[in-house]
Design a protein that fits this description.
This protein is α/β, with parallel strands linked by helices. It is built from seven helices and ten strands. The protein is elongated. The two termini are 42 Å apart.
Length: 238
């Protein structure tokens, strides 16, 4: 079942199992479940617990329906609509990438915030952390040694944690954003139903924007390719 990231839905099911809910009212089948299989399996599970589901848009009450066939057919239509919307969104993002338009991941990257001009600007306090990582690496320190330095200094990760991992440090060293550049379409969603992301190893075009924002490299003793992935990419506008 594809409900792993649906915290609210999963909590509702747990409440049903604890007999805290006796009726579920939902706007439509597409809001209840993302695909036909989930829809039918959860309806059956809830029915066994004596809990009915009312789909307002489709005018279906599982307590009074005589056959699952109409629910299966309408669930299939809802799944097809969901897939179509997801594919259109993905195509829209790829068109944006082609023209250099994207959402900068401020919440997942340390050292940047949104500036007055809408572009990323360096956060001075966090820049010290980035400089420490790059300069230590260039001086020959291992990832474990850099990790120890950061934790001793009380440096915070992008999520505000004091514990660092060698993997997160390596990702910073390999992230082109700290050079002031941006690589678009690093990953893609292979299956819209599962929502599983895969590393883009040539399945889709990638776009590389140079000098998009001021890089931390410009404030540290870091050579111009120190954190670049050297795989050939399409330049935006080419």
């Amino acid at each position: 079942m594809h409900t792993k990231k649906r915290d609210g839905f999963n909590q509702m099911i747990q409440d049903c199992k604890k007999h805290r809910i006796d009726l579920i009212l939902t706007k439509s089948i597409s809001r209840f479940a993302r695909n036909t299989l989930d829809s039918i399996q959860y309806v059956r599970m809830l029915k066994q617990m004596g809990i009915a589901v009312v789909f307002e848009k489709e005018n279906i009450n599982t307590a009074t329906m005589n056959s699952e066939m109409i629910l299966i057919v309408l669930s299939a239509f809802a799944q097809a609509e969901s897939e179509s919307i997801s594919q259109n969104v993905a195509r829209g993002k790829r068109m944006g990438y082609k023209h250099g338009k994207f959402a900068f991941p401020y919440g997942r990257i340390i050292g940047y915030r949104k500036g007055a001009d809408g572009k990323p600007e360096i956060i001075a306090e966090q820049a010290e952390i980035i400089r420490l990582i790059f300069n230590s690496y260039l001086q020959g320190d291992s990832l474990q040694s850099i990790k120890a330095k950061l934790e001793t200094a009380g440096a915070l990760t992008a999520r505000g944690n004091t514990a660092w991992s060698a993997q997160s440090i390596q990702r910073i060293l390999q992230n082109e954003k700290y050079c002031g550049d941006v690589l678009l379409q690093k990953t893609f969603t292979e299956d819209v139903l599962t929502g599983v992301h895969k590393k883009n190893t040539g399945q889709l075009p990638q776009y590389y924007i140079e000098n998009y924002q001021r890089g931390h490299r410009q404030q540290a003793d870091v050579p111009r390719g120190a954190s670049r992935d050297c795989t050939p990419k399409q330049q935006v506008g080419s």
